[in-house]
TrEMBL record:
Record bears the keyword Membrane: yes
Name listed for the protein in its UniProt record: Stage III sporulation protein AF
Keywords associated with the record: Membrane, Transmembrane, Transmembrane helix
A Pfam family hit: Spore_III_AF
Parts of the chain that traverse the membrane: 12-28, 34-52
Length: 198
């Protein structure tokens, strides 16, 4: 106990000597007040250090021993982290497919003669594959016509068969869509299916 008190007093004396020496080195200016305040804080900290140590050891409880098999707990943690990583990966792939479908829809809608497009994208989701996220197949459901801008009210005709009013998707429009998608996404033509939206 006496050795601890001796060390405590020595540390206080060293801090006070350092503060005094630093005060002599500084010129008489407004900065000297700031240095005195900081050195005063250091002196107070060195005085209160044993008290802080005692309070710390009495207020904080002893570490509780962990019961059970640590190897079993680590395997459980690894299993949970693998499941979380798998779920995060699935969510990422789903968001990627949705963004890709929205991008393809916007491209096709920009082509003249297209009223509506629905897109289904199939990508490579194989974990560990070097081409993960690559496009396997794109299916487009296209409705030909003029896109509805919401500005004009279209004429409605009653008692006419709907099959006669449906315009078919022209070969020129199909070729335009096929060229835009295959060139932009560097896919083969057999990876793209274009169907009419019913």
């Amino acid at each position: 106990m006496m050795a601890e008190i001796t060390e405590w007093v020595k540390s206080i004396v060293m801090v006070v000597l350092f503060a005094t020496f630093l005060e002599f080195l500084l010129p008489a200016s407004s900065m000297q007040r700031f240095v005195r305040v900081i050195m005063g804080l250091f002196i107070m900290l060195s005085i209160l250090n044993p008290l802080i140590h005692v309070l710390h050891s009495q207020l904080l409880p002893e570490p509780v021993a962990v019961f059970g098999n640590p190897a079993a707990k680590s395997t459980e943690v690894e299993r949970i982290s693998r499941e979380a990583a798998k779920g995060r990966s699935q969510l990422t792939h789903e968001m990627y497919r949705k963004d890709l479908a929205n991008q393809i829809r916007a491209l096709v809608m920009a082509i003249e003669g297209i009223a509506e497009v629905r897109v289904a994208v199939d990508t490579n989701d194989q974990e560990g594959s070097k081409n993960i996220g690559a496009i396997k197949h794109i299916t487009l459901y296209v409705q030909p016509g003029v896109a509805d801008t919401g500005r004009k009210i279209q004429k409605i005709t009653i008692n006419t068969p709907t099959a006669q009013n449906r315009s078919e998707l022209s070969a020129v429009t199909r070729d335009k869509i096929r060229r835009v998608i295959t060139e932009l996404y560097t896919i083969r033509e057999d990876q793209l299916t274009i169907q009419r939206l019913n």
